[in-house]
Every structure is written in structure tokens, then in C-alpha cells.
Design a protein that fits this description.
Structural class: mainly alpha
Order of helices and strands: HHHH
Strand content: under 5%
Number of strands: 0
Radius of gyration: 16 Å
Oligomer: single chain
Number of helices: 4
Distance between the termini: 54 Å
Helix content: over 70%
Largest sheet: none
């Protein structure tokens, strides 16, 4: 049972990443940053949609580290974008 749920989670995450990358290619907006941000959003959505109600398996507890890493990288992307927008004399 747990293996089937884990496999469903992995398949849903991979489907989201591939579909979002395909959409970004079709929109001619492909960049590493956009792929990462859209994939992170999809990853978080899949985590919430596949969450069990009563019991949290060990493999889902380990996802916290991936979420934390993803949010740190997302923060770095946001800071980098903000610094690119600001005029040169501000910082």
C-alpha cells in the first residue's frame, strides 16, 4: 500500500514537472529559474493533494528537507531578481 502511494506521488510529481516544462517551451519562456519555481509549486501542490489524513509515513517526513531546500533556492532566486530590478546606485 505504501509503495503504491509513493509511486503515485513520484508519478504525479514527474508529470507536473514534464507538463510545466512543456508549457514553458510552448510559451517560449523556458529558463532554469521558471522551471524550478513552477516545479516547486507543483511539488508542494502534489504533497498537499496526496497527504494521508491520519498517519504520516517516514518517507513523507523526509520530504521536509526537500521543501526546505526548495524554499531556500526560491528565496535566492527572488533576491537575485530584486537585485536585478533595482537601480545600480541603491545598493
Amino acid at each position: 500500500m505504501a509503495t503504491r502511494r509513493r509511486t503515485r506521488f513520484v508519478h504525479a510529481t514527474l508529470a507536473w514537472i514534464l507538463a510545466s516544462t512543456l508549457v514553458l517551451v510552448l510559451l517560449d519562456a523556458l529558463s532554469y529559474e521558471l522551471v524550478f519555481v513552477v516545479s516547486l509549486i507543483g511539488f508542494l501542490v502534489v504533497i498537499e493533494l496526496t497527504a494521508p489524513l491520519n498517519v504520516r509515513p517516514d518517507w513523507r517526513r523526509r520530504l521536509r528537507w526537500l521543501i526546505l531546500l526548495g524554499l531556500v533556492v526560491f528565496g535566492a532566486i527572488v533576491v537575485r531578481r530584486i537585485l536585478a530590478i533595482l537601480p545600480p546606485g541603491v545598493i
